[in-house]
């Protein structure tokens, strides 16, 4: 049973656990399986504001499950009284005109930031493409298409990460767009062998870079036979 029945036991302020098959038992990082304290309730994920308030109110146990390389929240265990109090206070605050005004201002700010990022990203794509003047219209159209696909919030694309510089994000987004638009990648049957898909992507990236190089020179080529020209016409 957790916590142990000792008079000098101090509940940790915040811990992270993995779930188990028993809803009221969790697994600690060191492998121990612990029982959720009596009087605690599970706050489901989905309301970041409420979760922050519950965590700030006192001790809590966060439950997170790793699926592949991603970590998914399964909720937060905390004293039920803390959850009820935080929820009531937050609902009262959210019912005020001031809160609605704050939400509207936040939406407008995020919209402006998103619009500015789309422009910055499209310009970064243009710099990476570096097409010759003869193919500049193609570059401009491609920059818009790539940015439109890659920059939406929540898209999960490389354009949304801040772990690499903008120029590298633009390059990766172009190669990813070309993989889907100028190759048969989406229809390929790739062996379920470790590293096979990565190798296919590497080979297709080399082909895509060669196609891009054609447009960095003024040497004419037949658009009908060019996968990039065909894709830009189709889209």
UniProtKB/TrEMBL annotation:
InterPro entries: DUF2293. It comes from the Bacteria. Residues 1-26 are annotated as: Disordered. Residues 141-215 form the DUF2293 domain. This is Uncharacterized conserved protein. It comes from Myxococcus virescens.
